[in-house]
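B., you asked whether I could sanity-check this one before it goes into the benchmark set. Here's the sequence:
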Amino acid sequence: MLNIIIPIFEPKNLETGSIDFLKNIKNKSIFAWSLDHLEKLNLEKRYFIVSTDKFISSTHIDKIISLYTSSEVKLIRLSKNTMGAPCAILMGIDNYKLDEEFLITSPDQFIDIDLNYHLNLFKEKNAVAGTVGFNSINSKWSYGEINNESYINRIVEKIPISNNALTSTYYFKNGNYMVEAFSDYILRGELTNDKYYIAPSLNELIIKNHNVFYSKIASEKYFNFFSEDVKQNFLNYINQKEDKIIHFSREYFNCLKNQDYLKLKLLLSSDVNITLLNEESFEGFNLNLNYGNNKEYGLIEGNYLLENIFKIDDQSTYCNYILIINSKKYEIIEKISFDNITSKIQVIKRFINVAN
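And here's what the prediction gave me:
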């Protein structure tokens, strides 16, 4: 079980102003965008919202998150804001199963990554804690000093001691390491701008010779919505991504139509999974179902007529087309899903209907 903690600071203008991360971008709240990479995790998870009772009651954040996840959601209600996220998180210690894994994240960031990959990497590197980072020198972020193997030597808050900035993503092998890091850090009393931050608490684990790993991503895949410019850049990014997967889906169809096997191989992930969703088939067409087992992708000669291609979400499309073979007509619907990192086709789910 992965426990995901989302600490939320109650803003001063709660009663008079709107909550920025609950505003919409492309018909979806920033908060919902922040859950995207979390909801794609292929493991069991439990969410904790840590905030003031006033904030939770005013925004109904517990109801909002339940619209985007089927996972368990628990609330840690505080009487008032604390001196930072580590303090707030420790207030809920009686609610945590400390022998389980923990991930701390933010309600106002979007990370276009496969988080499964990064969590597995932390485990492979025998790290008791880890973070995801990107290139920057903006003093808004925390920064890590990283060795040649990507283990962190030290972390400094708001001072670019390197170009290794940290996202608001922190993994702990179990809750005991998290509590140890936060408690020792608070006892040390090292405040930044009169607050305690999560990133410097990892130094407490490093001091004890524990491995803390830094997993780097491309800067353009990270958005923290602290300004209107970032929101516009994000909107541009999403629009471009939509255009990209539509383009690749059309390229895929053209490969089928033109029997271009060599180009098709460039579009498909090496472990592509192709599934037939119904019993209808025709001779040869199901050869491609075995592509992931290193067998040939079966291309069928015929007359291909594209009906339409449309986007389902930021990683998948529907491609509807007609295939005519020897005067027999097949209506085909394919759900095409793209790998988030390589942009290659990862999964094809095909439905075939014999039209006549």
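One thing to flag: Residues 228-258 form the longest helix (31 residues). Otherwise nothing jumped out at me.
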